[in-house]
Amino acid sequence: MIDAAFSIRRRRMLSGAALLGAATLLPRVAFAAEIDTGDLASMTGDVVPIDAAERGRRLDRGRALMAANGLSAIIVEPGSTMVYFSGVEWYRSERLTALVIPADGEAVVVTPFFEEPSVRETLGIPAEVRVWQEDEDPIAVVAGALRDRNAADGAIGVESTVRFFASDGVAQALPAARLVSADPVVRGCRMIKTPAELALMQKAADITVAAYRWTWARVREGMTPGEIGALMNAATAKLGGRPGFSMALLGEAAALPHGSGKPQRVREGEVVLMDCGCTVHGYQSDISRTFVPGRAPDDVRRVWDHVRMGQQIAFDAAKVGVTAGAVDDAVRAHYETLGYGPRYRLPGLSHRTGHGIGLDGHEPVNFVHGEKTALAPGMCFSNEPGLYFPGRFGVRLEDCLHITESGARWFSEPPPSIDRPFG
């Protein structure tokens, strides 16, 4: 991930993404303070949340991986991995909350005394909750939990986002322990999505596409990214998704993959690149579209077709047993035959072909040169091989896919042409 940090920055950037058709834009109208979404209805009536049985299977899988990798326990702080294993939706502060999952025995949640009732509200597994008072050391409570689970003298896996003060504190409190990466356990579980997870990701993608269609009909010439983003977010919420990010890049700004703070307005004949997503019970969508209001210039149309072919090349290459890096290599090799690059140089594809996705918008691993992880059923990725021309325009199409035994399968279908952004 450029990753967790980038994901936060992107959501704070231009709060806008708009879908505009090929037809001539209508004159701009005053932007309403209240957005009427009365013609939309929730799409989530059939959604099945992750339940206790599913989380129990995750814990079983995690413990099996601990045994296979010689770990006595793993330590997790609040975030998506804590949600994944325990259901606990919490935040990080100077007051430590942590989850200890031992290879043998019940999980332990360590949290401040006064936070225990709140933490228990989302706790979705059988677990002991141990509290600490304001004048007590939370690290000592974590160390005590590890001792009581016979995990204090072995290799303890630390999840990759755990803060230094917590991991170093445990190392000091348990000198006989050896702290190592928890990646073999966390990645080994989270990278392979179950049918229940895939269903939630499919629903998130469906909602994002429906929100794009609704927004498209309401965009007017002269709108700003913020105004367009407000439409997209309102539609997403009404359709039952939790708005995640809505970014619109207009004209020259579309050549900057992650945005520009310069003033932008929708203009006929200029590129509109949007990147939007939402969550359904925490699982994410991430879909990008590029098109032109009015008639698309010939050079933009040609590049759009190149990018659509790049997407298809990546999709066709993404098969079980192929390395994730080989998918990126296949796209880049084709782009170089068209005169782009070489490698990650501009003009051309200046970023990787895609990233993992699930509870986080960016997860391991990536479709990027040199990545040796072999693809397996249940892995999920974005597919977004853009082409960028600084000072002129950029084109990115992004749809997510998951790996099956018979090849890749789309969560959202790519558009057929620049003139038909939704088919």
Task: Explain the overall architecture.
The protein is α+β, with helices and mostly antiparallel strands. It has two domains: 3-46 and 192-410, Alpha-Beta Complex (Creatine Amidinohydrolase), CATH 3.90.230; 52-190, Creatinase/prolidase N-terminal domain (Creatine Amidinohydrolase, Chain A, domain 1, 3-Layer(aba) Sandwich), CATH 3.40.350.10. It is 33% helix and 20% strand. The protein has eleven helices and 17 strands. The chain has helices spanning 3-12, 52-69, 80-86, 116-120, 138-148, 164-173, 183-190, 195-216, 225-238, 298-317, 324-337; strands at residues 71-76, 98-102, 107-112, 127-132, 155-158, 178-181, 242-250, 272-280, 283-284, 287-291, 354-356, 363-367, 380-383, 387-389, 393-395, 399-404, 407-410. The strands form five sheets. The protein has a six-stranded mixed β-sheet, with helices on both faces. Strands 7, 8, 9 and 10 form a four-stranded antiparallel β-sheet that branches. Strands 13-16-17 form a three-stranded antiparallel β-sheet, with helices on one face. A hairpin with a 2-residue loop joins strand 16 and strand 17 (407-410). The chain is globular, with a radius of gyration of 23 Å. The two termini are 31 Å apart. The model is unreliable at 1-30 (pLDDT under 50).
What attributes characterize this protein structure?
423 residues; alpha+beta; Creatine Amidinohydrolase; Creatine Amidinohydrolase, Chain A, domain 1; 6-stranded mixed β-sheet; 4-stranded antiparallel β-sheet
